[in-house]
Amino acid sequence: MSGLLLPWARLTALILILLVARPGAAQVSAESSAPPQGWVTLMAEDFEGTFPHSPWHVGKTGDPYLWGQRSCNVHGGSAAMWGGGGGSLGSLIPCGAHYVTGFATTLSYGPLDLSGCSDLRVNFAHWTHLGPGDSLGIGFSVDGGKAWHVIPLTGNFVAGCGGWCRESLDQARWTVPLCGQKSVYLLFRFASNAEGVSYGTFVDDVSLEAFVATGSATPAATATAAPTGTSTPRPGPRVYLPVHLLQSN
User: Fold this and answer.
1) Maximum Cα interatomic distance, the chain, rounded to a whole number of Å
2) 58, 88, 164, 204: least CB-packed within 10 angstroms?
């Protein structure tokens, strides 16, 4: 009887060898180790839960008006960032009230090593209803916060968008290419002048996407200290405005 079982055992062993060595198995292994290519999401932030967390930085510690995590007006979830709605005095502003005059506050992310990408998209939602001369700025720094290249948004966007606007700013929008830089900080800056006020600006659902070519290293954020000089600092309509250069104090 054992002589009859031997051929079946050999046949079973041969089948197992063929299954393990089949071309499809080797192909799966090779594909799983390939470097990422195409659009890669570097960061997606909905401002839910504990905030800020590294590598986000909120203004200057001790300032009375900062970006604040509030539930007054949200794009999704239960929280969004309100420019001037945080800090020792800003946090006391009730939902639906106007912000005050004469301050600026920043919300920054980084540094990011973008040396391995060829294109970048900054996506975010904002609800913006501002007084004359006030602005929401979206920008970046490549020198640790000494200078910020900022696109200012002014006026009443609520009317045009019917509430929240969705924006997507790619590499072509910036005067200095972000891809290829080894230390990039991204910035949201709210500034109120000494004139009229309104309901303010809220930012939510921020994401960064980088286009990575085959064989390039995936861009990434690195945890370091906050940049200097931040104390004063595709649905939906697109905004095409000139880029302003802000020098830090």
Assistant:
1) 101
2) 88
What residue spans of 21-108 are helical by DSSP H? 23-32, 87-90
Residue 198: partners with Cβ closer than 8 Å, 6 or more residues away: 98, 99, 129, 130, 131, 134, 156
Question: What are the sequence ranges of the domains in the chain?
Answer: 1-34, 35-247
Distance (Å, whole) CA 129 – CA 98:
10
The token duo for 197 is 């006020």
215-239 pLDDT, tens per residue?
555 666 654 444 444 333 332 333 3
DSSP three-state, residue 239: coil
pLDDT tens digit sequence for 132-177 = 999 999 999 998 888 888 999 999 999 999 999 999 998 888 878 8
pLDDT of residue 214: 63
For residue 10, the surrounding DSSP H or E stretch is helix 2-20
Is residue 200 within 8 A of residue 85, CB to CB? The reply is yes
